[in-house]
Amino acid sequence: MSEDLVGYDVTEHVAVLTLQSPKNLNALSDSMLAALSTTLTRAGDDGQVRVLVIRGSGKAFCAGHDLKEMQAGRAAPDKGAAYFADLFGRCARVMQMIPALPQPVIAQVHGIATAAGCQLVASCDMAVAADDTRFGVNGVNIGLFCSTPMVALTRNLPRKAAFEMLTTGAFIHADRALELGLINRIAAPDRLEAETMALAQTVAGKLGAAVRIGKRAFYDQIALPLDQAYALTGRVMVENMLARDTDEGIQAFIEKRAPDWR
Length: 262
Prior knowledge:
Blueprint: H1 2-5, E1 6-11, E2 14-19, H2 30-45, E3 51-56, H3 67-75, H4 81-100, E4 105-109, E5 112-114, H5 116-123, E6 126-130, E7 134-136, H6 147-153, H7 159-168, E8 172-173, H8 174-180, E9 185-187, H9 192-204, H10 208-222, H11 226-241, H12 244-254
Parallel strand pairs: 2-3, 3-4, 4-6, 5-7, 6-9
Antiparallel strand pairs: 1-2, 7-8
Helix pairs in contact: 2-4, 4-5, 5-6, 10-11
């Protein structure tokens, strides 16, 4: 099932994970969440992978949760509240896997990214979007406030901008998403893959051990008070400096040659 719903391809140290359920706009169904969890774990454990790209097939990146499946869960006598608690818990765990992975993760976004699909973009470390992409946390329009997507959204956007999106249910376009910090770059639709891979290859070309150390420290320090953040990152710098390949990288810079990283 994982291979059917989430494609996995590695080229030049970049793993591309493709959501492959275009008929429902790559909705995060129970099966899709399971497949995405399995594939993220696979990528995180793959020693050849230095960067991950998550993209969607068909007309859209991801339209959020599968509403038909959710309604079936509501109606089933043996599900109800327990089903929804389990669903949102599983989704939260998948979203939290992304910043916890050792490799940077880039969302390649097109079409729409709505509700939990927008949450998925916000959970990635970076994002590149086609210039005609629309982003929204639109649940309020159907009476369901996007409370769990709000967690990732408010860690990317200014507070008032996030609250406006959550309470109006309005879409924002790629240029506004860039302005607010939800995405890093915009590309013409026919250049989206090339622009995303260019960013991925730039990051993949760095010393992998340094990027892994840095990603972990980035998320660890961001929630700490200033003094504790400096204490933590000071220890991280020591760890990084003592690595063999860091020594080689610095010496190669001094000697004006390419580093011999292992």
